[in-house]
Amino acid sequence: MSSFKKILIPTDGSEYTKAAIAKGLALAKQMEAEVTAMYVVDQTSFINFPMDSTIVSVYTLLEKEGKDAIDFVIKEGEKQGIKVKTLIEEGSPSRKIIDASKNYDLIVMGTLGRTGVSKILLGSVAEKVIRLAQCPVMVIKADSEGN
Question: Which portions of the chain are predicted below pLDDT 50?
């Protein structure tokens, strides 16, 4: 197995990413790798809306969600003696993760494992990252409870 020295763990703060966070941190500890937790404030849903107070409030809520998501990874890393760097970006989650991939040896991310119509309608960040990332991608499928 090749050695991974820089691992990126994207998170959206949901329960479904917790299994990937745990696996990514365990792998980082085993390989003595540097870890970066990444959250992307998804602006794609706001692109066609005027910036009124409602949109600004939603955006502020998403920023807080991102900080909380990153803080969770930091705390989980501390439990294992792993220092976690942070990266918060704005834009399309799949595009930002793919862009960041050139700076890492491995991406460890979660997925719901959607199939069929659900995957077609909602798209899959993980699927896009797998196809276009410039480094290997480990996808950890969470069950419907997020485990």
Answer: 118-122, 146
What the block records as the tokens of 124 is 């899959």
pTM of the shown model: 0.85
Report the number of distinct structural domains present in the chain.
1
Q: What sections of the chain are H helices per DSSP?
A: 18-31, 53-79, 93-100, 116-122, 125-132
| CATH code for the domain in which residue 134 is found | 3.40.50.620
CB 8 within 8 A of CB 38: yes
Residues 6+ away with beta carbon under 8 Å from 98:
128, 129, 132, 133, 134
CB count, 10 Å around CB of 44? Answer: 12
For 88, the domain range is 6-141
Domain membership of residue 1 (yes or no) is: no
- Backbone phi, then psi, for 17, in 5-degree steps? -95, -10
